Amino acid sequence: MTKSNCDNAMICECCGAAMAFGIVPMEVLYGAGPSQISIIAHIPAWTCAACQDVISAEGAEIAEHNAICDHLGRLQSHEIKAIRDEMGLSQNAFALRMRVSRVTMARWEGGAQVQSAGHNDAMVELLANFRARKTVARPYVYQTDVKHREAASMLFELRVA
Predict the structure, then answer these.
(1) 19-41 burial by CB neighbour count: b if 16+ within 10 A, else e?
(2) What is the pTM assigned to this prediction?
(3) Which of 26, 84, 100, 148 has a Cα at 20 to 30 A from 140?
(4) Domain 1-72 fold
(5) Three-class DSSP category at 109
(6) In the chain, which segments carry CATH 3.10.20?
């Protein structure tokens, strides 16, 4: 595939015809052996009008990863990063909470590896718990703290007296 004189136009190396950019369906194989499955991913690619040769473009790998995640019912890489960002955690801190290495977290966020169902569920639960804690009204927490302090001070006064 070579660039032509026109910006963003490509010439097919097989036949010399112009190639057009678009989103095309492509079969992706996931797994190995008898449990291997075929998934259709819609990827960015260049297609030759003459010989129908297809060359994947930038973003194809992440599109394939997202199709696999959708099929398995898992969070996509950008959703994992969004959870981490919403919680205000570094990649290392989020990895520690998930009990995985930072490298594994980087692979999940980069689309190089699909997380297990258990890790996926744990991330969803972690986010739900984080959001639930954020919705607790601060005055109620403060009042509870004041009551505990009052009770502790009364107990202290009884012991001193």
Answers:
(1) beeeebebebebeeeeeeeebeb
(2) 0.72
(3) 84
(4) Ubiquitin-like (UB roll) (3.10.20)
(5) helix
(6) 1-72
